[in-house]
Specification:
Blueprint (H helix, E strand, L loop, with lengths): L12 H25 L3 E7 L5 H9 L7 E5 L14 H5 L7 E5 L2 H11 L4 H20 L3 E8 L2 H12 L2 H4 L4 H8 L1 H14 L7 E5 L3 H22 L31 H24 L4 E7 L5 H9 L7 E5 L5 H4 L5 H4 L8 E5 L8 H4 L5 H21 L2 E8 L2 H13 L9 H8 L1 H15 L6 E5 L3 H19 L2
Parallel strand pairs: 1-3, 1-4, 2-3, 4-5, 6-8, 6-9, 7-8, 9-10
Helix pairs in contact: 1-10, 2-10, 4-9, 5-16, 11-20, 12-20
């Protein structure tokens, strides 16, 4: 692929200047449409050391309203960043709709360097490549324009640039040890880079290899591709994205109507005895969880008034407050709606050894967003596979994922709604929206059954908590968490 950089012949100086002006004008007018259509743009700039990545980005952004772009520069991850999933910091940097985010080096640089250092085995490399392919495909499927540029220069050109930069003290600092090592091992690096480019070259997010010998020629090549990409993105915005078949093994789950809520009650004495024992055990396991750096993610979904809050409280009572966080998930804020729907969950992931508890989750996409018309049919149908991929990414990172559906029947919900409405100190718990949602019980149940059936994977299965007796549901949840952690921490 690197040889492709030289397929286009550099034009004469006057022609290059005219074409550059033309492409700058095209970009100016394209940006207005991009903002109107709210298309977010991710521009990845990779390349050899001293190829001019910073200069290129500076030249391109001069043509963009500074309110509508940001530049993210990524060095190798810090110790703190290493305690999150590999893609986390790149996901967090995603732009809002209608804006640009320039990645000055990216996930490619991290993988290539780790590969060159021998820190990634063949299987670990393949796993990273799978993660990157899914990540980039999810971005384009969710309306992002992803443009990836690799700035190519020869070994001799790189050597000359290093020599020139080192010739004066004002520019000598720009040559890093990495640049010198890369030039000395150019052929070895080229082999790894070439393989990465081939492995991550996709029709929806292709690599553009840029001949970076000349600053203006480099800028023209990138502007050409940038404008072409924007034009295609504007044309394709209204088209539905193909739905992918689930490839992950699933656990067969019952329909909610087949879940028995009878005979699942505890006496107060039984409850207190089991509660104390399980909380003591969970407290011990939390210490081991931290010591072994295992992240735990607990996801709660369920009917309104099913008892999620009380269930969560009995779990947190057993945890060290320094090692967990509860995330109550409400309707997305404007800055969250303007990004990939999973963005607000990526930004709330725990460090390894810590616990994140989600009160409502990413499954809103296939429930409330589906039924209330907050996303298109293609969006929510596509989300089943995207969510499975998200959870697979987390389990590959090393997380234990425990998902609870808190189940009650319609009569129990009515009793609890009425009690809340008639009890002054509980009235804040009941809203008009709760009553409206209750009227849609049957359509919600259909959506929930489909959600559970399509997303109960072997690596992140659903657990149904029968919560007509809240005490029973709390004990069952604690027991499941203890069992899963003991299994993982053996």
């Amino acid at each position: 692929m690197l040889e492709n950089a030289y397929l286009n012949e550099k034009p004469e100086k006057d022609i290059l200047k005219a074409r550059l002006k033309e492409q700058e004008d095209v970009l100016y007018y394209s940006l207005q449409k991009l903002k109107e259509k709210k298309i977010p743009v991710v521009v990845v700039v990779e390349g050899w050391g001293t190829a001019g990545k910073g200069t290129l980005i500076g030249n391109v952004i001069n043509n963009i309203d500074p309110r509508f772009y940001n530049v993210a520069t990524f060095d190798m991850p810090t110790d703190l960043e290493k305690r999150k999933p590999f893609l986390c910091r790149y996901f967090e940097a995603l732009p809002e709709a209608g804006k640009f985010r320039f990645y000055n080096t990216s996930w490619m640089n991290e993988v290539v360097i780790d590969r060159l250092k021998g820190d990634l085995s063949d299987s670990e490399y393949e796993q990273r490549i799978d993660s990157i392919r899914r990540f980039e495909r999810q971005l384009t499927d969710n309306g992002y324009l992803v443009l990836k540029f690799f700035m190519h220069i020869s070994k001799g050109e790189q050597k000359d640039r290093i020599k020139e930069l080192q010739s004066t003290k004002d520019t000598k600092w720009r040559v890093s040890k990495s640049d010198l090592w890369q030039n000395a091992h150019y052929d070895e690096c080229a082999k790894i880079i070439e393989k990465y480019l081939e492995d991550t070259n996709a029709s929806t997010a292709p690599w553009y290899i840029v001949d970076a010998k000349s600053e203006k020629w480099t800028e023209l090549q990138v502007l050409d591709r940038l404008n072409e990409g924007i034009e295609i993105a504007l044309q394709n915005q209204s088209q539905a994205v193909p739905l992918l078949q689930n490839t992950f093994p699933l656990v067969k789950m019952p329909k909610l109507k087949d879940v028995s809520l009878e005979g699942v009650e505890l006496t107060e004495e039984e409850y207190k005895e089991k509660l104390n024992a399980l909380q003591d055990r969970l407290s011990e396991l939390h210490n081991r969880l931290y010591r072994k750096r295992v992240p735990l993610i607990i996801a709660y979904e369920g009917w309104d008034a099913a008892g999620k809050g009380g269930n969560i409280k009995r779990i947190t009572e057993a945890l060290d407050p320094r090692g967990y966080e509860v995330h109550p998930i409400a309707s997305p804020e404007p800055h969250e709606k303007a990004r990939h729907y999973l963005w607000r969950f990526w930004t709330r992931l725990p460090k390894d050894g810590h616990v994140a508890i989600f009160d409502r989750t990413w499954y809103g996409r296939v429930m409330v967003e589906r039924l209330e018309g907050f996303c298109s049919e293609n969006d929510w149908k596509r989300a089943y596979n995207e969510i499975n991929e998200f959870e697979k990414e987390l389990t590959d990172w090393g997380a234990v994922i425990i998902k609870f559906w808190v189940q009650i029947d319609k009569d129990t919900q009515l009793e609890r709604f009425t009690e809340r409405q008639n009890t002054p100190e509980k009235q804040w718990k009941i809203t008009d929206e709760d009553w409206r949602n209750r009227e849609k019980w049957d359509v919600y149940e259909t959506a929930i059954n489909e959600m559970i059936r399509k997303t109960s994977t072997k690596f992140a299965p659903w657990h149904i908590l029968e919560s007509v007796d809240k005490k029973y549901a709390r004990i069952k949840a604690l027991q499941i968490i203890v069992d899963e952690l003991e299994k993982r921490l053996k």
